[in-house]
Amino acid sequence: MKKLTITLQLELTVPDDWAVVDTSEGTPVLKLPDGRYLDVAVEPLFATDPEDNWSTTDDEDEADEFFGRVESEMVSYTLSDVASA
Question: What is the pTM of this model?
Fold first, then answer.
């Protein structure tokens, strides 16, 4: 077996009324103004040709196999003001 490390870093411009809050377990998530919460996590995408359309799987066993291989996950959120142009 090999060890694969994937690092994702996203930078988004979001409305001022989005906030980072912690769940009861201390996990940070984003609170949206409409009363919903947003968490960002990896989701495997598949294709039969790398130049074709990519999509998630409807096969629960395939998804479970992928997620079963994840040994650790770290998500962090940092909100900062953006200077107006």
Answer: 0.68
